[in-house]
Structure formats: C-alpha cells, structure tokens
Amino acid sequence: MGLISPQQISDGTTIDAADVNTPINTIANEFNGNIDSDNLAANAVGTSEIADGAVTYAKLETPVGFSATVGSNQSINNTTDTKVNFDTENFDYGSDFDATTNYDFTAPYDGLYQFNLTIYWQNIDDTNYGEIRIDSDTANTLTTYRARNYSYKVNDDFSTSVSGVLELTAGDKVWAEVYHDNGDNTPIVTGNTLTSFSGFLVGRTD
Question: Which H or E element spans position 68?
C-alpha cells in the first residue's frame, strides 16, 4: 500500500521523493523493455487476452535459409578458381539465393549465418588435390572457409566438405568456389547427397 492516498492530496500540495514509496525511476525501468516473467502474474496473458487471429504466421518473420545442388555434372578447368553453378534449389525461404544467374546468396539482414558446402570430385589422380571454398565479400574484404583433399590413387573419386559461420551485413553475397590441379578438366558430380550448398540465418545483429 502506498504512503499517499487521494484523500491526503489537495490542490497545490507539494510532494517530494521522500513522500513516495515507489521511486519513479523504478517505474520507468519497468516500461523501458525490462518487464519480464517476474513482473507478470502467472497466466496473466493468455488466449483470452489476444484477439482471435491477431497473431498469424504471415505476421511472423519469414525464415531465411536455402539448400541447392548442381543439376548436372560441372566440368572444372585445371588450376582455375571456378564458381559452382548451384542451379537446382531444394528450398529457398526468403528467396535470397540466386540459382539462375549468379549462383550466390544475398544476406537480407545484418546477422550471423551458417553455411555448409560439400563437393564430390570425380577422377582426381594421385598426389593431386581438389579444394573447395565458401567465399563472401564482406565490406569489400574476402572472407573464406577452405578445405583441401589430396587423392591417393589414380582416378580417385572423393568428397570434400567445409562449413562455417560468417558475420554479414545486409546485401553481402556468399558463393561457392572450387579449384584443382588435376591437369585437365575435372567434373564435380551432381546429386543432393554428393554435391550441395546450404545456409541459414542463425540470428540478426541489426
């Protein structure tokens, strides 16, 4: 119960902080984003307090994520950095992956993003290698997650994978590149279980 009641106040009465048992700044803090479960009675907000249909899926933030593969084997020139043509989408929530022209992902928000890349190489000779990279142009600085596998027999097929978290600014682009020194054009193999590129938003930082 407060120390002051309406019956104790008349026009012109001066009230100072000592007369109030709940400091004003405490009240202000509760309305400054600091109201939590400790401040709310159990079950204070339920379905009866929310108008029917007030919260819908359309009003919630659309998830951000994609998964893609190559629709056919892609031939990679020797000792040449080559972007992988991930032209077949499994899904693309937010429509941020370009599977038609540039084969890259554009970050819709400032945030942390997880990316995963798997490439299946075909006919890499012994002592030669295949390298894969997740590349991102963040603030004009190239950031790379890289993995390299060496072949240990003639005409070897093998898989290489890499994953990582990138901090991106809205508008930054991310793509997949490969490189090999096999001496001739070497294919990477199509198929979701063999060659794939995926990514999703972990959390926004804006």
Answer: strand 65-69
> What are the backbone angles phi and psi of residue 78, rounded to the nearest 5°?
-65, 140
For residue 20, pLDDT beyond 90: no
Tell me the backbone φ, ψ of residue 117, rounded to 5 degrees.
-135, 130
Beta bridge partners of 202: none
Q: What's the rounded Cα separation, in Å, for the pair 97 and 94?
A: 8
CB 154 within 8 A of CB 183: no
- Kindly report, residue by residue over 91-131, the tens digit of the pLDDT: 999 999 999 999 999 999 999 999 999 999 998 888 888 89
Contact present, 132 and 175 (Cβ < 8 Å): no
Amino acid, res. 122: Q
Q: Give the pLDDT confidence of 24-57 residue by residue, as tens digits.
A: 566 556 555 555 666 566 666 666 666 666 666 5
| Tokens (6 digits) for 13 | 């009465």
Task: Report the distance separating Cα 68 and Cα 27, nearest Å.
Answer: 51
- Read off the amino acid at residue 126: D
Within the chain, residue ranges assigned H as helices are 24-30
Q: Which of these, 204, 205, 206, 192, lies nearest to 62 by C-alpha position?
A: 204
DSSP alpha helices (H): ranges in 15-104? 24-30
User: CA 204 to CA 80: how far, in whole Å?
Assistant: 35
